[in-house]
Amino acid sequence: MKKDTYKTLAAPSSETLFKEKNSKFFGYAYPVTTEDEVKPLITDLRKQHQSAGHFCYAFQLGADTVYYRTNDDGEPNNSAGMPIYGQIQSFGVTNVLVVVVRYFGGVKLGVGGLISAYRTSAQMALEASEIVEKTIDVLYTVKFGYQDMNKVMRIIKEKNLNIVSQKMENNCEITLSTRKQNAPMVFEVFSSLHTITIK
C-alpha cells in the first residue's frame, strides 16, 4: 500500500546561525505549497540581510510526484543548493523551502568547506523546525439535489470527510477532501447513490 502521508513543517523555523572561519551562515526553513511562494520569501530575506553575499536555497514540492529546485546563488556549482537539498531529503520533508544566507568573512572555505557549511546550516534550520505529518488528500466534488442534503451530510459525518467548499442552492455542490487511502471507499459510497454525482 502506498503511503498516503507526508512530512512537512508546521511553521517557519526560527533563525539559526552557523559560523565557519569568520563566515556566517543564517539558516531558514519555511513550509511552502507552490513555487510562487519562494520568491517573496527570498526577497524578504534580502531586505533583512542587505550586506549578505549569497542567498542559496533548495525547495521541494509535492507528495506523490516530487518537484525540486536548488540555487547556488553565485557559489561554486553544487556547493550550496545541493547540500541544502540533501538535508531536505534526509529529513524526509516536502513542501518545504530552506534558505541559507551567507556573509563572507574574508577567508575562503573551498568547495568542501562550503558544502559542509551549507549542509550544516540547512540541518540546523530543519532541526529548529516543527515537523508534522499530513495526509495526502484527494478532492471530490459531489453534486446533488437539495432533497439529498441529509443523506450527503450523514455520509460526510460518518466518513469524517473535510468540506473544502460548498454551494447550496437548488442544485448543491460540495467539494470534499479525504485521505488518499480512503478515497476509493468514499467514491464508492457516493457513486452507489443514483441521484448524486461525484467526480
UniProtKB/TrEMBL annotation:
<dbReference type="Pfam" id="PF01205">
    <property type="entry name" value="Impact_N"/>
</dbReference>
<comment type="similarity">
    <text>Belongs to the IMPACT family.</text>
</comment>
<dbReference type="InterPro" id="IPR036956">
    <property type="entry name" value="Impact_N_sf"/>
</dbReference>
<dbReference type="GO" id="GO:0005737">
    <property type="term" value="C:cytoplasm"/>
</dbReference>
<protein>
    <submittedName>
        <fullName>YigZ family protein</fullName>
    </submittedName>
</protein>
<feature type="domain" description="Impact N-terminal">
    <location>
        <begin position="21"/>
        <end position="126"/>
    </location>
</feature>
<dbReference type="GO" id="GO:0006446">
    <property type="term" value="P:regulation of translational initiation"/>
</dbReference>
<dbReference type="InterPro" id="IPR023582">
    <property type="entry name" value="Impact"/>
</dbReference>
<dbReference type="InterPro" id="IPR001498">
    <property type="entry name" value="Impact_N"/>
</dbReference>
<dbReference type="InterPro" id="IPR020568">
    <property type="entry name" value="Ribosomal_Su5_D2-typ_SF"/>
</dbReference>
